[in-house]
Amino acid sequence: MEYLLLISGLIVLYFSGKYLVNGGVALAYHFKISTLVVGVTVVAFGTSAPELLVSLDAALKGHPEISVGNIIGSDIANVALVLGFAAILLPIPLKKKSVPFDWLIMMLSGILLYVFIYINNNLSTLEGVIFIILLFFFISFTIYQSRKEAKQSNELYNKPDISLIKSIILILISSVGLYYGADWLIKGSVKIASNLGVSERVIAVTVIAFGTSVPELATAVIAAMRKQTDISIGTVIGSNIVDILGVLGITSIIKTINIPFKVMEYDFYWMFGISIVLFLCLLPLNKSVLTRFKGIILLFVYIVYIYFVIIG
Question: Which architecture, in CATH terms, is 2-153+162-311?
């Protein structure tokens, strides 16, 4: 049964990711904002739905290691696995100057999470509120800056293939599909992993993190295949920001997440290290391309991380 859930989840995720990209691109054309912004905001929220539901469910049921480990592991997988695989399929040119800024926000979000857990071994309601406020300002600034740049450069947008209402409906239905696809994949994967006697933390940062990152993987790969490369990188960076500020923000507002810092310390260092590797791959910033070689490097780093987590 668990293998059937796993396969069904992958199929649903593929088609949901495909139509989420279609809806996201159409939405960008309707509102005259870049596809990168849609990736960082709308698509990122859609692909982060599994992380939110998994982390919230784990916190409410008293599994803080899964709640936080799912986010840290997912952020690692998003950068190293998702972007790495997408770049191997098709090199990703960075057309928008906002990518380094988005990377900085992603890094600062991770550092803030590190500080909060380091100080008192938990994420409280107040800290969750701070996360949500920061996320609101980030999204508002991103949309404002995109529209400003479009006016200054007289950027032309293609005429959308579908109506505004249809594009919104497509995004909503695709997001629901991503949730159920990820849910089936997670249930099947966790059952298989549990049968092998793996700890909660290891399951969280590997199996569950991979499962909740599959929506980003499906979306980024399909976007790359359609040469919508801005959505590929926008989805990954945006999803990581939403995961920390949005998912853990909402989760900690509903229920304080108590977790000893030392439990997640090792994974934090990997998250920061892989983010730095991504920044190095983005150089030079003025005309950067995530080449296939850089994609192989990112994917190799992810494999090494998984290896050390399992043997550790």
Answer: Up-down Bundle (1.20)
Amino acid letter, 221: V
* Every domain of the chain and the residues it spans: 2-153+162-311
Q: What is the DSSP string of the chain?
A: -HHHHHHHHHHHHHHHHHHHHHHHHHHHHHHT--HHHHIIIIIHHHHHHHHHHHHHHHHHTT-HHHHHHHHHHHHHIIIIIIIHHHHHHS-EE---TTHHHHHHHHHHHHHHHHHHHHHHSEE-HHHHHHHHHHHHHHHHHHHHHHHHHHHHHT---PPPSS-HHHHHHHHHHHHHHHHHHHHHHHHHHHHHHHHTT--HHHIIIIIIHHHHHHHHHHHHHHHHHTT-HHHHHHHHHHHHHIIIIIIHHHHHHHS-EE--HHHHHHHHHHHHHHHHHHHHHH-SGGG-EE-HHHHHHHHHHHHHHHHHHHH-
pTM of the model: 0.80
Beta strands at 289-290 and 257-258: parallel, antiparallel or unpaired: unpaired
pLDDT in tens, 234-258: 778 888 998 999 999 999 999 999 8
